[in-house]
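Predicting holo structure, flavin-adenine dinucleotide bound.
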Amino acid sequence: MKPAPFMYLAPTTRQEAIDALRQYGPEAKVLAGGQSLVPLLAMRLARPSVIIDLNRAPDLAFIRSTQTGLTIGAMTRQRVAETDPIIAARAPLLAESLRWVGHPQIRTRGTIGGSLAHADPSAELPAVAELLGARFVLASARGERVLDAKRFFLGYLTTALAPDELLTQVRLLAQPPDAGWAFYEVARRHGDFALVGVAALVRMDGDGRCVAVRLAFTGVGGGPVRVSEAEAAVTGKRVTDMTAAEAARIVEGALDPDSDIHASAAYRRHVAGVLAARALMQAARRAGSVT
Ligand SMILES: Cc1cc2nc3c(=O)[nH]c(=O)nc-3n(C[C@H](O)[C@H](O)[C@H](O)COP(=O)(O)OP(=O)(O)OC[C@H]3O[C@@H](n4cnc5c(N)ncnc54)[C@H](O)[C@@H]3O)c2cc1C
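Done. Tokens:
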């Protein structure tokens, strides 16, 4: 199939894009990398009458180091972020997770903002954004607002973005230099969306005990899912095979994923537990301590 007819606008600045959204918001869709939107248009699952192409607005693509972390422009290509030295130094969890997103060809076009705005529950970036304390900057002709992940991700393919709003940038906290991290997922074929994925961040004290543990899962709910009971079970302890197995058991019991044609809920729960244990061990190793 081919897309239904639409009017095509190509703003050359962030402000022009916001002006176009003010004029056409409810009937328009912004086009970022097109890796999710173009198939939807081609199948006529989305039929906007206006396309606002962001690809000619260079002021939406940047990576900046800040005092507390980094700021990434929405139109930054996933592949650029994956190989960026600032991200490698300050948020290696993000760089690692990006390697799991589709294939290099997709990441070369796909953008950080497009993935976050699309909010696929199996996508890697929402879980990483949740762990790195993301702040989403939403701009419109009415002004700007800044939301955290809990207020930005509202459920399956749904965010707080209003029809006239543009996601312009995401602000992330830098990982503490002594934090260990890991990202694992299971997909049916390399490059497919994950059946289940997990992002982990761990900090240890000088004695090898966890002082902070964060786990965020993809593919097991409408958006990124934290399991605070599993995080609490590891906090204050050394990461051993036994503590990792205990965390896995809690994760399996706490998650409530759906079954679909790709995997049953029971399989997803089991995989989430296995991946949680693996991610905890790897993160603790990188933080310099596994007993
Ligand atoms: C074969 C294949 C495999 C893939 N595998 C994975 C995978 O494993 N993991 C994964 O996470 N993704 C995967 N993707 C999707 C890919 O990551 C996309 O790049 C991403 O979902 C959308 O980013 P985009 O820049 O292409 O956005 P687009 O497709 O251009 O846009 C997606 C949606 O977001 C909206 N949007 C985009 N930017 C903004 C903005 N700045 N403000 C407001 N709204 C905006 C658009 O209007 C549209 O509704 C895959 C895609 C393909 C084709």
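Residues 98 and 110 are 11 Å apart (CA to CA).
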